[in-house]
TrEMBL record:
The gene is nadB. Gene3D superfamilies: FAD/NAD(P)-binding domain, Fumarate reductase/succinate dehydrogenase flavoprotein-like, C-terminal domain, Succinate dehydrogenase/fumarate reductase flavoprotein, catalytic domain. PANTHER family: L-ASPARTATE OXIDASE, L-ASPARTATE OXIDASE, CHLOROPLASTIC. Transmembrane segments: none annotated. This is L-aspartate oxidase. Residues 8-382 form the FAD-dependent oxidoreductase 2 FAD-binding domain. Keywords: FAD, Flavoprotein, Oxidoreductase, Pyridine nucleotide biosynthesis. It comes from Halomonas gemina. Pathway: Cofactor biosynthesis; NAD(+) biosynthesis; iminoaspartate from L-aspartate (oxidase route): step 1/1. Signal peptide: none annotated. NCBIfam families: nadB. It is an enzyme of class 1 (oxidoreductase). InterPro entries: FAD-dep_OxRdtase_2_FAD-bd, FAD/NAD-bd_sf, Fum_R/Succ_DH_flav-like_C_sf, Fum_Rdtase/Succ_DH_flav-like_C, NadB, Succ_DH/fumarate_Rdtase_cat_sf. The keyword Cell membrane does not apply.
Amino acid sequence: MTDGKHEVLVIGGGVAGLALALEVADHRRVTLLRPASDDQGASRWAQGGIAAVLSPQDDIEAHVADTLVAGDGLCDERAVRFTVEQGPSAIEWLVSLGVPFTPDASADAGYPYHLTREGGHGARRIIHADDATGRAVVETLRQHVEAHPNIGLCGELTAIGLIGDGEGHCRGARCLDADGRLHELLAEDTVLATGGASGLYRHTTSPLPASGEGMIMAAELGAELMNLEFQQFHPTCLYDPEGPAFLVSEAVRGEGGLLINAAGERFMPAVDPRAELAPRDIVARAIDAQMQRTGSDHVYLDIRHLGEAAIRHHFPTIHAHCASRGLDIVHHPIPVVPAAHYSCGGITTDLGGASTVPRLHAIGEVACTGLHGANRMASNSLLECLVFARSCARRLRAAESPSSAEPTPAHWGRQPVDLDDIEEIREAMRQLMSARVAIVRTDRGLDEAARDLAQLHRRLAPRMEDAAPSTALANLWHALRLARLTVACARARRESRGLHFNPDCPVHGEASPQPSRIRLQDLQAT
């Protein structure tokens, strides 16, 4: 079924997709593909808050400087400055929409809302809604989206690929409904807001993580990808092998939480002068080292010294969730482990969200704007979603003449693929990525990952020729190729920088670092 009535097609309904839809809809008709699973996506689980210069004691240059330090020499300073400068107005926009940020009623408050501090930040600049900021922002934006007459919500379709044409332009997306029927949505402009690639790993901070589907869909049309090797692992995911993933916010350490090992010893002061407030890559590696040294499968985050009143006040969601899983965090430290959290790399875009493919845009975690460099600083992610959604929306408000070339047809087989086989290959991929391409990578481990992923690729590729379209198969095919591209980028960047740490080359290897750029066709040469 082909439907060509779409002006702006937005794929993904987290903070980035919702914000863009709202900002465009007064000017052009928007179709928002937002499956119900988006309610469990990364945006909703963002606990800590949004970084922005809001306090009289803070300034733009300080936020820029902190971001550049965290990015370990690989940030695009133009993108950093653009994002930070746009931050205050983005927060004002959210306040005007009614996001229930936590107020600050103290007598000496210099700003109406409470600001906390997180790792890498030299000041209190994180505005938040208790410890459930992502949920508060998503729910507020969704209410406005649902009420807007110029936004059409589509929750029954899942995008499995993009539509190109003979001129190399993006023309929309191919989707499947719940019954496996194919739908082609032709659009004048297409925006990907599909999230990152933490689902390539076994342990993540999101119950339903994306696996880079949007990145590869863009790459299939020829889009350039950038900095895929920089996968951030959040230092403190709740350790509970029997339960679902649950992130323990950076703000817990910002308010005084201490990391201790299995022997009850604090270890961060000996690693970095910023101790628990060091950037995430440093903290995650320190935890990993402690686990290796002690043979433990987790460490602990201790907030008992804050007292019950402060814990319940600052972290009601974390307190309630841990209690529901039998953990009394008032009297016992929280068991935590690093988990795949955020992809600093993605689809290369400019400051208006445009990819290298005409009429294809990307915003949020699926994009690589240059803001994060080699390591994302805490709470700069929701900031990026908002700033670039609004920037991309400004570009999209004026419709340009669409391409007149014929859309490229898709060719599908009719042979169903065994779902158990798909899950077996997916689990093997995740095991490989977690064992060889995680917090610490070695030359030998990356070589083994490249070899074994190529074998999985050869096992799956012949089936794609005659396979009937299915969401599970498409997601695996996307994920497996992105995993191989990620390994290729990691092997190409031998130096340790930011989130990419290789003990075989532990220091920076170049004075002027360059971003890693790769296209899907490069896979044939890796």
